[in-house]
Amino acid sequence: MTQKRPFSPIAIVLMASVCLLGACTGVVDRRGFLADESQQAPFQDGVDTKETVLSRMGNPSQTGTFDEQTWYYISAIQKQTAFYKPRTTERTIMAISFDDSDKVASQRKYTLADGRVIAYDNRRTPTRGREVTFLEQIFGSIGRAPVQLPGSDPNLPTSAGGPRRN
């Protein structure tokens, strides 16, 4: 009587490869304002007010920093594959500006293509003073003893060396 193996080597290799490929599928993350189809209709300039925008869109993701009469609704979709850094695949920013009577003055829509890459400067800001090397920091305090001023109490925590125990 022959003994049956529970799994053949080919089946084990196939299951392992399916598991490895399944681990590489991307994770999609939706962030920010999630609009549905009823909210996509544009607002009428001069007719719609802040209340109608709030009722259709809800609270804004952000208001203007210097001008609170501009509301921003921001949404982004990011995808991360395995251990790689997440990358933004889609971004939408809806900017709605209001006039002094709280009516819609203008509306603009920005996408990922409208964004700009900002190049950060990686230079260091110089500091004043002398730079001390590692060895100077270690050996710089050798030979320096705490100075005890005449007439000062050695048990006070403000004196050199801290309080003394008797």
Describe the structure.
- This is Outer membrane protein assembly factor BamE.
- Residues 44-106 form the Outer membrane protein assembly factor BamE domain.
- Residues 145-166 are annotated as: Disordered.
- There is one protein chain.
- The chain is an alpha+beta fold and 166 residues long.
- The protein is built from three helices and five strands, in the order αβαββββα.
- β4 and β5 (104-111) form a beta hairpin.
- The termini are far apart.
Overall pLDDT score: 79
Q: What is Rg?
A: 33 Å
Largest sheet entry: 5 strands, antiparallel
Treating each run of at least 4 consecutive H or I residues as one helix, how many helices? 3
Tally of strands: 5
Order of helices and strands: HEHEEEEH
The residue ranges in which pLDDT falls below 50 over 5 or more consecutive positions are: none
Question: How far apart are the termini?
Answer: 89 Å
Outline, from the CA principal axes? Answer: flat
- Report helical residue fraction: 10-25%
What share of the residues does DSSP label as strand, in percent? 15-25%
Specify the structural class. alpha+beta
